[in-house]
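User: Sequence in, structure out. Go.
Assistant: Echoing your sequence, followed by the structure tokens.
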Amino acid sequence: MLKKLALLLAALVMSISAVFAATVEVNTADQATLEALSGLGPVKSKAIIDERAKGPFKDADDLVNRVKGLGVKSVTKLEAQG
């Protein structure tokens, strides 16, 4: 019983650390990293990088307003991915 509990705790810790390790920062990520996110292809990733060159994104709303082709739904999905 104790062994099962220890294994369950270890799995929980590993899954939580995997979530934090997978976080992508749009203000610093390169194009390949952005393209690896579901819903972002080469065109949208390049648009993010081009717009980011004008200054960092303040928040998700700023990203939606500045990057053509990214809507609230898309950004919400991206936030869910990290």
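User: And one key feature?
Assistant: Confidence is low (pLDDT under 50) at residues 12-21.
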